[in-house]
């Protein structure tokens, strides 16, 4: 049953490097991955494209979709900043026979794992230290000082969830982290799904 599409979840505190690793994996065509485009209530950053990086819904529309039960999972990841996986997004990618890769917060990641236990691998990206997160976020220059502080403040709680994930990838040396991510994902995609999985 190797052809059952799988879910590959990358979660981590902001700045740990999950987006970098996910983008690297998406370039490897043999993995047959497609990115789950999340919905977000925040504004697009410079260079981010609606319908490519996120579906930028704005807060009103986001809340309407919550009421309409359109989400597989959603979270208020930071105060007044909602993110979520739309049911239609995963259906769309599964219909294409793709393995779906997610860049989502730790709570959402563990929630997906619970929903699809037999076809999900949950990967935690661990930064070398919380201080390093701050350095990376400053260098990335996408967030204000205040938003960086908000992200870093949440990092310790997020780090504490690491043992609940299937695999932890330490992202210190980027090339090593990329190689490990590739091996882990390749092995998981090639492994048969558990025999009690319903199809
Ligand atoms: N639960 C959940 N979290 C998400 C989703 N999409 C993105 N996130 C998370 O929301 C957080 C903020 O994302 P973003 O604004 O892109 O900032 P970044 O992580 O600093 O690059 C990150 O932890 C994302 O992984 C989603 O669909 N569901
Ligand atoms: N191993 C690494 N060493 C140094 N910088 C890194 C490393 N991995 C990622 N970065 C940089 O750190 C910043 C945060 O990475 P990003 O992938 O955006 O993290 P996340 O998606 O987890 O918030 C980016 O500017 C990225 O280029």
UniProtKB/TrEMBL annotation:
Record-annotated residues binding ATP?
Answer: 12-19
As one GO molecular function, the record gives:
GMP kinase activity
Q: What class of enzyme is it?
A: transferase
Q: Which residues cross the membrane?
A: none
Q: Which UniProt keywords apply?
A: ATP-binding, Cytoplasm, Kinase, Nucleotide-binding, Transferase
What is the reaction catalyzed?
A: GMP + ATP = GDP + ADP
User: What would be one Gene Ontology cellular-component term for the protein?
Assistant: cytosol
InterPro entries membership? GK/Ca_channel_bsu (IPR008145), Guanylate_kin-like_dom (IPR008144), Guanylate_kinase (IPR017665), P-loop_NTPase (IPR027417)
> Which Gene3D superfamilies does the protein's record reference?
Guanylate Kinase phosphate binding domain, P-loop containing nucleotide triphosphate hydrolases
Quick check: keyword Cytoplasm in the entry? yes
Source organism, top-level taxon: Bacteria
- Domain Guanylate kinase-like stretches: 5-186
Q: Where in the cell is it found?
A: Cytoplasm
Role played = Essential for recycling GMP and indirectly, cGMP.
HAMAP family associated with the record: Guanylate_kinase (MF_00328)
Q: Which family does it belong to?
A: Belongs to the guanylate kinase family.
Record protein name field: Guanylate kinase
Which organism was this protein described from?
Nonlabens ponticola
